[in-house]
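We read letters as residues; the integers encode the fold. Take this protein.
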Amino acid sequence: MRSSQRFERAVAEAAALLGPSRLRTLADRIGDGWPRSAIPGAVPVPGFAEAAQAVLDAQEMEHVPDAEAVPYLRGVADGHAQHAGASRVESVWSGPSTHAVPVRATSQVLVDLVSEAAHELLLMTYSAKPYTPLLEALRAAVERGVSVTVVVETLQGAGSAMGGAEPSAAFSSVSGLELWHWPMNRRTEQGAKMHAKLAVADRRVLLVSSANLTQSGVAKNIEAGLLVHGGTAPQRAAEHIAELRAKGLLERLR
């Protein structure tokens, strides 16, 4: 029996990164007989080209014929779609706790989410200050090969609503992560702010909170949020951020 462990591993990693719809697109392009060199560029979203190339390389190395690769890809996509349909939601709070109503703390949930990411990590915050447990978790994530993207507001974008150091400076000690922002020339409404606060891990876990990525936000203030495991919400959030980047609405901070 021929071993195809590398191919199966590449497909599993592609499924976790791309989600079922993109994986089906990859299967369709292979099944339609597209030139191998053209397939990685079939979907112009971050991560697709690399994941598709890894699958194609593994397929070639282990001599997996298209007649086997295509149904396998579609089967894995269907399995992920079915699994993604089930979701679990729990409340997350910063600030004082009560014994009568136990809830999970934002600080611990955020660090756990970052620590458990295996492939991709996306964070968005309005304000940011160095928070040591988060920075340590981010450094560890980068070291284990996780693609880390952080979208922040700028002092110019916030106007008089925020002072001090640039929010991006909070992450200056973490080499290897990408910093992005919403440039002023792409804001069509006067006074518009990049006010989202969220984190997405591997497109399967989503934290949406009122808390900024600061010591006060994740640990001191009374802040509320929701942690979503599975379902379509984490996937859609990651895809929306990817589209904002692809269309130039978000740009890299230099």
Q: What stands out?
A: Residues 5-84 form one domain.
